[in-house]
Design goal:
The complex is a heterodimer.
Chain A: H1 2-22, H2 28-42, H3 44-59, H4 66-70, H5 76-80, H6 83-112
Helix pairs in contact in A: 1-2, 1-3, 2-3
Chain B: H1 2-11, H2 16-35, H3 44-58, H4 63-75, H5 77-83, H6 85-90, H7 92-97, H8 99-123, H9 128-134, H10 141-151, H11 155-179, H12 185-207, H13 209-237
Helix pairs in contact in B: 2-3, 2-4, 8-12, 8-13, 9-11, 10-11, 10-13, 11-12, 12-13
Classes of the chains: A mainly alpha, B mainly alpha.
Chain lengths: 117, 238
């Protein structure tokens, strides 16, 4: 387990360093994800080491958003003054983006004959 | 009673209390979610936030005090993003076969999210910090924070707006995509990941493993797309 955590943290840290050095607006953990994906492809043993820990963390992914989500209590007054508008914005933009994204995927998959298996 | 007050004042100073409370609220929310038959409306993040919000309000605990304990959970967001490498690696072959649909859906979904958000916000007269904080709301919270800071928004507000977007998408996706009669799990998962980042991915993982893998990919790609596109699109609406 220690080795898995170490591998994950090293990828994140390398990602943070590369993100700062390159000046790209891409956040460190996202670069770390690319690094770990490359590592998993290159080293079969790394897959066996990382798998149980990664599955444990991803199995509880929703929990990790709770602390930042509770921060809503500090913004209630500013959000409440635009409550009606924000409800429309959240429902409208989210429904539109999910629909347009899924329809675009399906349409292009059909055009290019991209099928799963 | 005075003993209780003493214990309370001891516990409320350290991180143990609010770390425990965060896990307890989530365990309760997850039990409610399961009891509801995994209904999208019983979203575990939403229920946890409501429970903790009420507890903090009743105990008159400032958010900063709460966060001292909860930061141990919050910290794991970064490693969790790195861990998405695993489902990504496991599905690399399928992703290669779907590279064109993925590119099209990323561009369409990411642009739609930002344009509709900013267009509606302007129509309602929203500007300044709130407008800039709304722009990256489909990106995962740590990314939304960084992008919002970069374009003149508020980091904490951006995190909250991103999480609310995640919850909205996780609730809407299943009924909406059923209404559209879309049955390709790749399309359903990917669009949800693009729009609702990690919370959408968590939802997709609960529904179907293929949807989960593609949602994780959508989240990652939109983190990058939002970071690149938001600074270009926001000025059009300012």
């Amino acid at each position: 387990m220690i080795h898995a955590i170490l591998a994950i943290l090293l990828c994140q840290m390398a990602g943070e360093i590369l993100s700062r050095l390159s000046g790209l607006p891409v956040p460190g953990p996202v670069i770390g994800l690319v690094l770990l994906t490359t590592g998993l492809a290159a080293f079969p043993r790394l897959r066996d080491i990382v798998r149980p820990v990664a599955q444990g963390i991803l199995g509880n992914l929703a929990l990790l958003f709770v602390p930042a989500g509770v921060g809503v209590i500090g913004h209630l007054s500013s959000l409440a003054s635009h409550a009606g508008a924000l409800v429309v914005i959240f429902l409208g933009s989210t429904a539109a983006a999910i629909s347009v994204g899924a329809l675009a995927f399906t349409a292009v998959a059909r055009l290019t004959g991209s099928r799963d298996e | 009673m005075s003993e209780f007050t003493e214990i309370w004042s001891y516990l409320s100073r350290g991180p143990l209390l609010w770390l425990t409370a965060t896990l307890a609220a989530y365990a309760l929310a997850d039990a409610i979610f399961r009891a509801s038959g995994r209904s999208p409306f019983a979203n575990p993040v939403l229920i946890s936030v409501v429970i903790l919000g009420i507890v903090l309000h009743l105990s008159r605990t400032p958010y900063a005090t709460y966060f001292e304990g909860a930061q141990f959970v919050h910290f794991l967001l970064g490693p969790a993003i790195v861990c998405l490498a695993l489902p990504l690696y496991d599905n690399l072959d399928r992703l290669r076969r779907a590279i064109l649909p993925v590119g099209a859906a990323l561009l369409a979904g990411s642009l739609t999210a930002m344009l509709v958000t900013l267009g509606l916000a302007r129509a309602f007269g929203i500007d300044g910090t709130l407008l800039a904080s709304l722009a990256p709301k489909s990106a995962t919270a740590p990314v939304a924070i960084g992008v919002a800071e970069h374009i003149g928004g508020s980091p904490t507000l951006a995190a909250v707006l991103a999480i609310l977007t995640g919850i909205t998408g996780a609730i809407l996706a299943t009924p909406l995509l059923n209404l559209l009669r879309l049955t390709d799990w790749r399309a359903r998962g990917f669009a949800l990941g693009v729009t609702s980042h990690g919370i959408g991915t968590a939802r997709a993982l609960q529904v179907n493993p293929t949807a989960g893998a593609f949602a994780g990919l959508g989240m990652v790609l939109n983190a990058v797309a939002t970071a690149l596109l938001a600074p270009l699109i926001l000025p059009v609406f300012q």
